[in-house]
Give the backbone structure.
Amino acid sequence: MTRRPNPWQQSSKFLIYLQRQTRAVLEMLCPEICLLCGTELSTRPRVFGAPVCRSCFLELDRASVNECIGCGAPVAPDIELCLSCNNQRELQQPNELGHIHSLLVYRNTAARLISSWKIGSRRALTPLLVVMLGEFLRTRLHTIGYTSLGEIPIVPVPARPASRIRRGWNPPGSLVRGLERQYGARALHALRRNNKGRQQKSLGREHRLANISGAFELRSGQLQELPPTVILFDDVLTTGATAAECVRVLQNHGVSKVITVVVARDL
């Protein structure tokens, strides 16, 4: 027996979607308060024109300069590998992700920023994140021998279709488009997400690895176009299961080096 959709449930979802879209437009046109602390912005300077006060901006936890050479986790100045990477080496387990470049640490004010932007659909925060990410990427790429952001194509991790529909927009995709406009970046939408696996949020690492296995594949028409080096980009990295699966797919199709970049890393 075919189950009929509940009209009240459909109406509720549409109203939530409409509310988020209306709020996003109003916040971009006439933001009056800091979206992180609620302080009025009429008497306090904004940062890069975004509805964020300078105090909240300065409180954002940036990722450590001293990072593990294996995974990018913060370490002491005289330490090369974190405990996890050391254990992997001793157990002869491969590190799927290599060095992870993270702009922020997902905690305190930075967690509120990412949560408000991604989950709360606060699109007015996108320009701030684009500028922060663009300057961060230019600096990091320069340290490994690249002179401009456009030299390496950016492969965004595709979001779950249900998430895009629920939010009404694609947060990581909006950052990549901003990087293209302002920093001359090149987007390469090489990956697509199929319907395998459920949402990762409530799962541990082992279950995430099993759940995400086979969830990504190469888009049709990309088989002969992948360059040897790409930047894999996502917004938040928690266990690394999603990024590791994307790296596996890219390397299976000829990519020799994947530089993993995330806006925030959940430690």
Remarks:
- Confidence is low (pLDDT under 50) at residues 90-95.
